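User: Could you check the structure of this?
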Amino acid sequence: MSLARAWVSTVMVSLCLSAPARAEEGEATATFALVVGVNRSVDEELKPLRYADDDAARFFDLFRSLGARTYLLTRPDENTGRLHPQAAAEAKLPNMPAWEEVLVRLSDDMEQARAREVKTVFYFVYAGHGNEKGGRGYITLEDGRLTGGRIAKDIVERVGAGEVHLIVDACHSYLLVDTRGPGGRRRPLHDFSKIENLIRHDHVGLLLSTSSAAESHEWEAFQAGVFSHEVRSGLYGAADVDRDGRVSYREIAAFVERANAAVINERFRPQVFARPPRHSQVLLDIRQGLERRLELEGAEHGHHFIENTQGIRLVDFHNPSGQPVRLMRPAVYGPVYLRNATEQNEYLVPADTSVIRVSELQAQSPRADPRGAAQHAFEQLFSRPFGPGEVERFEFPSLDDLLQVSVDQPREMPAWRRYAGLGALSTGALAALWGVTVTRSAVTIRNQSHPGESQQEVAGRNRLIDDRNITAATLYAIAGCSLAAGLLLLLWPDGAPEPGLLVSEDEAFFTIGGEF
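Assistant: Sure, the predicted structure tokens are below.
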């Protein structure tokens, strides 16, 4: 997505509700999911996205394959409708009336589950447009805006699930919990007390895309948002390095971080912010889905991806030598292809077997080169292997650090600079006013001349006019210098100006800036 695509484009939210499913210690669990995908934002200045509806449909398939009751808000285009007919049939438009309707249904679902004394787990997945105005971050529907406070009220308080997980892929999504702007600059905090309370809820987990350029990205080779594709890849099992059938927040965050590690230009490098619920590290239990799975042994290592017969990439991963992988089989019709991008071969994975081991399949030559320009920045995604070491080294930001960032204020200007700057501006204004007065005086003296004046009177009048002009010029010079000094004192960057280079596929920009 373009982050751009930056907190911060497409909107996709997925919430899944299942019949009682397998949970910790055999506890019955009802899982709910709401998926929202929006290509065209209510903010008309934002460029429309291409693949938010595709992301929404694929998250819909993922949660539905786990037996979850899934609500979908998106406007599928013609291509998405052909590729995902079930999702297209059930989708409602991503607007405020449909949002309200789904919230009512979700609240009823939760109430029924609580009446049965069943544990409730709720997923909110959003991929699409985010924006910020006046320091306030929000994600958008086609006709409305969802701020952090609105999300806290609707998704956490109103729905009332026992456990809530929010997955957001959008420009400026970091502003839902963090008021830092591009490059880590701090901004004033406005109306974020509710989202701060959301972070403090023990039962709420967050998984957000972030970027120093505040961008989220789409890539045609994925026909999806980059962050969303990475998250789905991990949730299908590629991030489950301990192979316990549960994808933890630490595993998924480390997986996404590692997938992007080789991308040199930070403008194209999605990053991840993750906060698990206080009493659980698990993001998604996939044991039910692993009953129909694909297994790779440690000898079958390298960068692999799975695509269907329509050429749509569904999962990417890169396992190191000796690291086995178990993947849920994507819920698609017919066979899929597993391709080893490292060794340039592929396997036809049939659709009629529950458990398939790659070691039992016959490798064949690839049908075509991977789609997308080889020199594209995103070709470096998944180029580095992901294993247990990356999970062990990953560290979550502390809650105290996060909240400290949220209440940070911009750096105060030193008092001496403020007073000196204002004094210089005042001096400049007074000098300019005095200069205008002296100039008008010279004009008045010149206009007082008459034909009967003597030579001596004319010479005296001219000397007086010259004196006035010299005085006025001096005052104008003082005014200009004082005004310039005042502006420099008040507006000069607090730190050294920072040069930068932004490079895209077909253009480059040199930038320089500082904090004013």
